[in-house]
Each structure stands twice: as C-alpha cells, then as structure tokens.
Amino acid sequence: MENIYLLMLVALVVLAIADLVVGVSNDAVNFLNSAIGSKAISFKTIMIVASLGIFFGAVFSSGMMEVARKGIFMPGQFYFDEIMIIFMAVMITDILLLDFFNTLGMPTSTTVSIVFELLGAAVVMALIKISASDTQTLSNLAGYINTDKAGEIISGIFLSVIIAFTIGALVQWLSRLVFSFEYEKKVKNFGAIFGGVCLTAIGYFIFFKGLKGTPYYGSFKDILASQWLTVVGVSFVFWTLFSWLFMKIFKKSILIIVIAIGTFGLALAFSGNDLVNFIGVPMAAYHSYEAWAASGQAASSFSMEVLREKVPAEPILLFISGGIMVLTLWFSKKARSVAETEIGLSRQGHGTEKFDPNMLSRAVVAGSTKLADGLRHILPVGTKRRISKSFEKPDDILVGDKAEEQPAFDMIRASINLTVAGVLISIATSYKLPLSTTYVTFMVAMGTSLADKAWGRESAVYRVAGVLNVIGGWFFTAFSAFTAAGILTYIIFLGKGPAIAILLLVAIGLLVRNYISHKNKAIAKADKSGLKKSESKTVQGIIAESADNISNVVSRSNKIYSDVLTGLAKQDKKKLKKSKKGVDKLEAEIEDLRDHIFFFIKSLDETSVRGSSFYIAILGHLTDIAQSLEYISKKSYKHINNNHKPLRYNQITDLKEVDDTLSDLLGKIDRIFTDKRFEYISDIVDSKPEMLKSINDKIEKQVSRTRTEESSPKNTTLYFNILLETKELMNAIMNLMEEYHSSYKKV
Description:
single chain, 2 domains, coiled coil, membrane, transport
C-alpha cells in the first residue's frame, strides 16, 4: 500500500511541472503586456528583463508556501491518506482549468484557482468524514475549513476589481491631463520628477512585495515598516536625480527605464508570491509523505497536524522551478495568446475586436455616455476646452502591416500601468489583504484604457464586453475550481489507485487535445492564403491587388458549391457542415475587408479617389457571392440534418450539369485573374445570357415535374431554392466581371 502513495507523490511532481507551464502561460500577461503594448523596448529585451525577475523571484520564494499547507483547511483534521487525495484532486483540476483558459486566450487568476480548488477538495473530504461519523453533523464542517481566510479572499476579489480599475483610471486621467498625447515635449521638462515618482513606487514595490518571504527580507523589514516615509523620501530624491542624469547623458526618455524596471518588479512579485499556486501543493505532499514514512503509522490514522509547522521551501526545487518558468516564458505560444487579449482590449487605436457586444455591455456604454454628457454640461467652457486639448490624439491612422507595427498605447500609459499596479499590491500586502496580481494588473490596464479614451464610441461596446467576459471568467474560475476539485476528490476516494490512473490519462488526453486545438488556431491565424487588404494608393494598384482576392474567392466558391452538391447527392452531413464552415470563413474575411474601407479611403492619394468607388463596388459583389453560397449551404445542410427525403436522381443529374457549367466558368475566371490576363474578361461577360438560360431551363423543367411527378414538398422547395440562389450567384459573379472589365478599360 505504501507504493501507491509514492506513485502519487511522483505523479504530483510531474503535475507540478505541467502546472508551472500552464500557470506561467496564463500569468505572463501580468508583467509583459505594458512593455509589449508600448513597444518601449525590444521584445528580446522585455523577455530578458522578465526572465531575470521570474528567476530571482522563484529562487528567493519561501514565505508563501504556507497557503497550500494550512491557509485554507485545518490540516490536523485530516489523515495522511485523505490529504493525499485532496492534493491529487487539486493538481489535476488546476492544470486542466488553467490550460482551458490558456487555450481560450483568457487571463484568469492562478491564486483564485488554487485557493478554491483546495477549498472544494477539503469541503468534500470533510463531508465524507462527517457522513461516516455517528457523532458529527453538517455544523462540524467549519472545524475542517479555515472559513475566515476563505471569506477574506472572496472579499479581496471584489475589492481588487473595483479599486484597481478606479485608481488606474484616475491616475491615468490626471497624467494625461498633464502630459497630453504629445508627451515627448513635456517629458523633457517634467520627466525627471515623473520618473522619480514612478521609480520610487516601483522600487518600494520590489522590496516590499517582490522580496517578501526571502531570506533577506528580515534585514530591512523593520526599516520599511517604521521609517517608510524616510525610505520613500530618500528614494524619490535618488530616482529623480537618476532620471535627470539619464535623460541628459543618454538623450533618451526615462520612461524606458520605468517600463523596464516595472516589468522586472511585477515579474519578480509574480514568481516570488504566485509560485505557491504551482508547486505549493506538491511540496506540501512531499513533506506529508516524509513525515508519514518516518512515523511508521498507518496512512489512515496518521494526523496531518505536522503541516501546521513552518517548513522552508527546498532551494533546489525553487531553482528548478525558476528555470522551468523562464523556459515556459520564452517558448509558450499560449502565453502570447493571453497577452494579445489584454493588449487588444486596451489598444489605443483601431484593431480587430475579439469579443461581440452583449446586452450588458451596451447598457454600460449607454449609461456611461449619458453620465459623461451630464458632466460636460456642468464644467465651465474654458475647463472643457483645456481638458479636450490634453486628450487630442495625433492623426496617425495606419493601414496594413504598418498598423500592426505601431504601439497599442504610449509609454505614459505603460508607466502608469506598472506603477499603479505595483503601489496597489504593496499597500494590500502591508495590510495583509489577500490579493490577486492578475486582478490588479488587468483592471488597472482597463482603467487606464478608459481614462485614455481608448474605448471610443467605435469600440466601447466590444471592449466593455471583453472586460465583462474576463471578469465573468474569473468567477467561473472560482466556481468551476471548487466544483471540479470536489468531484475529483470524491471520485478518487471511491476508486483509489485505478481512479487516479484513469483521471491522469483523461487529463493528458485533454491537454493534448487543447494543444492541438490551439496549434490549429495559430496555423489558421498565420495562414496568408486568405483575402488581403488593399494597400495601394492608385487605381492601377487597386485593380492589380483586387485580382488576387477575386481569384481567391472564385476558387473557394467553386469548391464550396461543388462540395455542397456532392454532399446533397451522397447525403453526407459531415461534408455539408464543412462547407458551411468554409462559407462562414469566407464571409468573415470579406466582412473584415469591408471594415477596412475607412482606412483604405483615408490612405488614398487625392488623384486616386476614383479607386475607392471601384474597391467598394468589388466588395459589394464579393459579399453577394458569399451570401448566395451561405444560403445554398445552409438550406442544404438543414435538409439533410432534418432527415428529409433525398433529392431525386433526375434532380441530382440536373444539378450536376449546373455544377459542371459553373465549375468550368469559375475555373476560367480563376485563370484569368491569376495570370492577370484581364483582356479575356469580355469573353466571360458575353457568356452571361447562355449561363442564365441554362438555369432557367432547369427551373422550367422542375415546374413541369412538380405538376406531374413530384410528391415531396421539402424536396421540391430545396431544389428550387438551390436553382434560384444559383441564379443569384451567377448574377453576382457576372456583375463582378462587368465592374472589373469596365474599370480595367478606363485605366
């Protein structure tokens, strides 16, 4: 029986390594985003600075490991076999939950996940013990759980969300009022003071929060506590002088140093304090096993009161953990996905919105707009003019790849993000308040985005919806962590070794599936074969660039149409579903091009405005093509999915003739636009009457069949729908050819 606990311990070590990987992938967003979004320093430099912060924080982390040992439950109330079940359930749940959020590209709190997993597992194990006892009732549950700590954590969640957002917005608004968006000029005059304030706050944060729990903290603990005003004053003078000298000597903005040191500080704090979320449970399990093995008692009777003792973390394990976290930071693609979510929500300029608006986000935006309008009426005209001037943004709209190259926000906002997050975490720690670094850093970033007017009328409903989704995900984390860990605890209690083996295999399978899913999404995102935005500023260039898109749409339309008819003939629901997805992807790409029209027109030369009319017309015809394909694929899938009668043989034969004719036509168009031999478009246009006559003949033939032979209304309706929409598809294709032919002749 002893072997099973040794195997469980080995499994927990492996799970700890996996948890480090998925945990860093999610929490990297906390300390990377400000530097990445502002592009103040190169990505390589950001990674080096963050890696140093992570490694030092991990190596010197030891004081926070008590949370997993006795912070949530009363260890003396459980025996060794019970505590190992709790720890196993917690680690399996934690990995799956964090990996799920990473795959979605959503930031969540590793602190909340581990706390509620421990709470859920301990509650269920306590209920099992109570149910098996003749003397205990449900009222005894409080004796097993550290209820005060759980209450503090839940209240801390609400407070951190509200306070971080509010303070972040206020500080950013005041900073922007002083520096405006043309901050480079004012930084030369006030940069030393601003740098002194920011670096003092970040420096205090590094020492107070980042190094708390390290062997060196005791030497300056009393000084920070009793003479903090003196420490802050001396630091401010030092950092102000340093900022002034840096700008004078190197002729660079001090904001670069603020962002670099702020990134290091948050990475240090994350690693030093959140490491417990990943290895705290396995280390507690190791110490439990060590104590039990030395006791010689039975696993079912050895009390875990030993976990109440303070045991320092193993230096070698901290060193290894730091190395794993650094490697994960460099190689995890999921970390980039999570970072993209927050940067997208806080982006100053225009960009693709990841979230769809919902009723709540619309209500919030509408209410905020009315409140802002009311405040404007109260303020004096001069004050409103002064404020508006500070928030005027430079007109630097970029298109194409250049838009992706510009920073998501400027260095002022990045500095405020890092400074405010550091100060809030420091204050909370000084009052011993439970706090999630994820909640603070994310909500500060959202608050500064709001204050910076990054959430304009064009994007507010999407950004607010995104924030609400992320916050909702945090509460989902707490609920699902508690529930899933509790369920797994009960399963392991019933099934023992075999149950653990099955759960580990299921966990591995889910991790592999999520990895493949994320990899496929990344490949699809990097796929350059889709429709491309026009970046040309002349009519000739627009015509040439549009040719590639037309060739792309025609080729894909040909395949989609043929696949739909093949799926109908063979009643292949899988093929029809795949065609529907192909149409959805095509429609999304065309819609993306339509959303780009504003930027396209803004980039045109004065002499080439005529190109905008051509470009808009082309997009209109491409939209008509996609809508016709969407209608045909949707109706066909619905027919087969509802198990209606298949099409008759003669109907399939007629549709095959239409498909062959259309396929031949689209093949010719594809070759014309691929080879840029536009002079042959006239031949395509001339074939329009014959093509439409062929479809009309099929319609008349079906009318005749319906009067004499057909007996299936659903069958007949589908056939007519396909023919009529094919006619619309043909018209859209021919209109596109006529538009292109007409514009090509004018050039």
